[in-house]
Structure formats: structure tokens, C-alpha cells
Amino acid sequence: MMPLGNRKNVVENQVEEVVTEQEPVVEQTTEAAAPPVVQETPVVQETPVVQETPAVQETPAVQETPAVQETPAAAPTPAAPAPTPTVVHSNPSPAPAAQTGVVAMMEDMASKGFGGLELDYTSFVGISLDSETFTTTEEDDIDGREGFVVQIQHSRAKYALRSNDARQEDVEVAYTYEKDEHLTPGTNAFNKIKDWQKEGRDLGEIKEYTEIWALMIDDGSLGGELNGQLVSLSVPPTSRGRLTGMIAMEQMKNKRGPSDYQIRCAVGKKVKKAKFPFYPWKFSIEE
């Protein structure tokens, strides 16, 4: 049996040995916890593959979409409106000026089977200004100072072809709605000039007038003979601007068209500062 003192020493030695033997285990654990694999994370930092995304930025294939921008194939669509000249050519120039009133009535009649009818300068009593007096085609005179009152229904250009006779009283006049009709064989104007040429005369000049179809409201000195009838006014170029100016002012000021009010036609003051002095038409709105 070992003495007590010796056993104490043996136990202490064993404890020291146990402690001593456990220290290297801790050291080994520390060494194992810090392996170079964990610290050596350059693989994570070395992400040049992610930063090196030139393949994504280099998308010229997407930007290079000339096929989409290059849509000139759709641009040549103006081919659609091209046929419009045919429509415009098929309608004489006077037609657009009269889509209401008398012309609309005639178109409606034609659609109902009453075709072959035509309105022209001979359809209604004509009124023109002769010096200081208005003269009708029925050879009646209207006092120019008092004048007459009408309501416009329609207007268009009318051309007067005058023969080249030396004396004014021998001059013959033919009317047409087409300025160059006398150049087309077979037309009335063409045939008329041919007749003049057979008589030793020819075309002298072409004068443009404004033909106005209007409803007579008050025929003045005629005493009501023409009231309620359609008449045809022949306004010369020297007076056309006066009428157009009055109509334009009324349209701008009161938004009223030519058929929305009544107009008094009278003889204006004589124009003396002209090669051939004349009396113009005078127009005023009847309130």
C-alpha cells in the first residue's frame, strides 16, 4: 500500500498530465478552425466573370434594329390619296360653290328621276346694270337709285365672249361657264365663234362676270312683278370686289353666310378715274 503522501503526488501528476495532454487538443482545434481554405477567399473576390459583362453591354444586336426603324416601306402610303385628282377632275369648278339651295334642289330632282334638266343664265329673269338703270332680260327697267332687295341662293363665274365688231351696237355676246370652252370643238362657244368667223368677225374679248341666283324680296319700281321669283344677277368684275368685301365682313363680324340675310342692290356713285367711267353696283345689308 502506497503512503498517503505519495498518492497525493501521483494524483497531482496525473491531473497535470491530463491538463497538459488536453492543451495540444485545443491548439489543434485552433489550428483546424483557421484552415487556409476559409481565409483564402480570392475565389469569391475574383468575380471577374460577373464584372466582365461586356457580353451584356455589348448588345449591338438589340440596338441595331434598323429593320424596325427602317419603315420606309410603310411611308409610301401616300399612294392612297392619289386617286383624288380623278374626283376633283370629274366635278366642274362651279359645282363646289353650290351644294345648297337651287343646285341642291336640282340634284335631288335628278335622284328622283327628273334628269336632263339644266339651270343656266336663261333659266330666270336676268338683271344687269346699264349705266344708271337696272335692266331685265324682259326689257323692264328698275330705278337704280332705289334698287331692289334680294336674298342670295347661289353664285358662280360666268364668261361673256364678245365679238370684235368695231361698233358697240354690233357687238354680239355669248355666255359660257367654262373660260376655255371656245377652244373645245363641238361646244356651243366653239360653234358660236365659228359662225362669227363665217361672217367676217371673230372673238374680241372674254369678260368674267359673277352670276348670282337670288330670291327677289322687293323689286322696287317694278311694283312687285318679280317678288318671290328667282332672278339671275350679272355682276361685272368692277363690282364683284364690293360684293365679296361686304360678304366677307359679315362673315367675320356676325358669322353669317351670304344666304342668311337680305341685300339691297342699287347704283353706286360714278367712277370717273377710269379709262371708261362707269356706274358700279352698290350693296348693303337690309336689317
Description:
The chain has 287 residues and is α+β, with helices and mostly antiparallel strands. The protein has a domain at 125-286. Helices cover 35% and strands 23% of the residues. It has helices at residues 4-33, 36-39, 42-45, 48-51, 54-57, 60-63, 66-69, 84-90, 101-111, 188-198, 237-254; strands spanning 125-130, 133-136, 141-143, 148-163, 173-176, 203-218, 230-235, 262-267, 281-286. Strands 1, 2, 3, 4, 5, 6, 7, 8 and 9 form a nine-stranded mixed sheet that branches. Mean pLDDT is 74; it is low at 1-5 and 7-99.
**β-strand number:** 9
Percent strand: 15-25%
Rg calculated over all Cα atoms: 52 Å
| Count of helical stretches | 11
**Mean pLDDT value:** 74
Q: What's the main sheet like?
A: 9 strands, mixed
Please provide the ordered H/E string of secondary-structure elements.
HHHHHHHHHEEEEEHEEHEE
Structural class: alpha+beta
Shape: globular
Distance between the termini: 155 Å
As a percent range, the share of helical residues equals 25-40%
Note poorly predicted spans.
1-5, 7-99
Topology:
Layout: H1 4-33, H2 36-39, H3 42-45, H4 48-51, H5 54-57, H6 60-63, H7 66-69, H8 84-90, H9 101-111, E1 125-130, E2 133-136, E3 141-143, E4 148-163, E5 173-176, H10 188-198, E6 203-218, E7 230-235, H11 237-254, E8 262-267, E9 281-286
Parallel strand pairs: 1-7
Antiparallel strand pairs: 1-2, 2-3, 4-5, 4-6, 4-8, 6-7, 8-9
